[in-house]
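User: Let's play a game. I give you a shape written as tokens, and you guess the letters that built it. Ready? Here's round one.
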């Protein structure tokens, strides 16, 4: 969780999450949080493809696995939404 907060602070971004969060940990004026519980993966991907273009600024979608991160980024790219996977195996050049 601390890594998520650090990344969000460095990037000064708004955040959308599909996983549940603990209240109060990410209270920042520069962040906007939303938690969704949807029926299945296809419903979640469809929701993302619909909602992300409506949002302003940068969006982070938290997922549980590297595979999910890659899959979501690929899906969003196929929907003509600029997306990149970010996970522990990605090398960052700050």
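Assistant: Ready! My guess for every position:
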């Amino acid at each position: 969780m601390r890594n998520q907060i650090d990344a969000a602070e460095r990037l000064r971004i708004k955040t959308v999450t599909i996983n549940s969060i603990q209240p109060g940990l990410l209270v920042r004026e520069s962040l906007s949080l939303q938690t969704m519980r949807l029926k299945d993966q296809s419903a979640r991907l469809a929701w993302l493809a619909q909602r992300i273009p409506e949002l302003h600024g940068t969006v982070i979608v938290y997922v549980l696995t590297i595979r999910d991160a890659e899959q979501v980024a690929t899906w969003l790219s196929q929907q003509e939404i600029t997306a990149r996977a970010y996970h522990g195996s990605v090398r960052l050049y700050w």
